[in-house]
Amino acid sequence: MAVFKAFTSVRPLPEYASQVAALPYDVMNSKEAAEAVKGNPYSFLHVDKAEIDLPDGTDLYSAEVYQKAKENLNALVEKGICKKDDKPCFFLYRQIMDGRSQTGVVGCASIDDYLSNRIKKHEHTREEKEQDRIRHVDTCSAHTGPIFLTYKNGGAIRALIESWKAEHEPIYDFVADGVAQTVWIVDDDGVIAALTDAFAALDALYIADGHHRCASAVKVGLKRRAENPNFTGNEEFNYFLAVSFPCDELAIMDYNRVIRDLNGYTLDQLLTRISESFTFRFVGSDEPFRPTEKHTFGLYCEGKWYCLKAKDGTFDENDPVARLDVSILQNNLIAPILGITDPRTDERIDFVGGIRGLKELERRATTDMKLAFSMYPTTLDDLTAIADAGMVMPPKSTWFEPKLLSGLFIHEI
Q: Which of 161, 277, 317, 361 could make an S-S bridge to 372, C-beta 3.0–4.6 Å?
């Protein structure tokens, strides 16, 4: 039984929505954010990356950055750019990218569901990344970016979504970075109750993207509980902002690898070593090779593309983590042959999201890197199977597009 509830949102007035909405804080650096907000004082990057409004060289994790974020958030309300709703509501958030549509329900999930694993994870988090968002949420007293959740077997939810969309006009409708962004407000008490019940009928929710933000929101909630020992469980700090999408509407893109060197091998020597665990064939030099099935990989080096295919017996088909392509490549090639045993920390490896395209792999492999691997995307079935088993994926296993915009919904705690 999953808890997913309506909330009283602080959000932009319709005429400002496209100016406020911004990509998540963790998909760009400070310099890119500063460039993105030029001419737009209302961009939510002023909240999520407030260092852009402080002197160059300011420590990104200084108290001044978090205080500036709070100041900028408050200013959006004081200037009439954002306004708090009169009552708790759900929202429907549809994104259309390259002709593919996904519609999620915006609401609040329970920190207790996270702690009891009704909200299932598939990724480890890092303490230093958590601490940044803990301080941001705690200082702002608000969740400023939604967690990306998904669910299975949500037919009742889908019926309610489609009925509401068909009968109501959206409150926001604009295009950002080539993605159509459309939002409806669900303010009817009967439909709100029906959606709440439909979510309660789900066995679980799954984190698709945003593990660090989710863990941080939960830790702020626990901190607030400790500070308020008489808490009832109904306070807003017991919940966090999220958008829940059905699994069958989502798509995971490839998350590719680039390597700085060949670990002392020539290309011919490397291919000989690779042949111990993979079959390989030369593909060509004109076009990048994109794998079209599991357990198949592209290798690019010295201007040539090769197709690799994992040999039978080189991985455990019954282990949901070991059979992932990212695991097969890591365990049979990147670690034993290239000597990169910890991809989280080794500076000889980097990761390229599929949104950048395979030409980016060629560019990297001929500039700062020497070797590139194109991957077949991890599937939603892989993700949920691993989460259901209480296991975790290797780092950089999934890349979701489109990204959820920040600033359209703010959950005060």
A: 361
